[in-house]
Request: fold
Amino acid sequence: MPMRIKENRHVDGVLNREVLESKVAVRIDQKGRISIPRHIRNELNLQPGDLIYLRRDNNELRAVKGINPFDQLADQAESDFRSGKTRNL
Reply:
């Protein structure tokens, strides 16, 4: 089970209010895999088969969900259609 870690952060070096950032500790299995906890998958709408980009920043590993540009175009076209911004040719 993942362990949740709470950490205090200073904003611009000044602690105006306490900001809590939730982090999760996971273990790497023998094949080098990690499991993303369900609550994070749900928050980021991660589905099986989604592409995740990994980037190393010094001693940190950052993961970013890959977005298909065609999905973005389709979403924009659907939004334009529903709002009446399209017309028949």
In short: The first helix runs from residue 38 to 43. The mean pLDDT is 77.
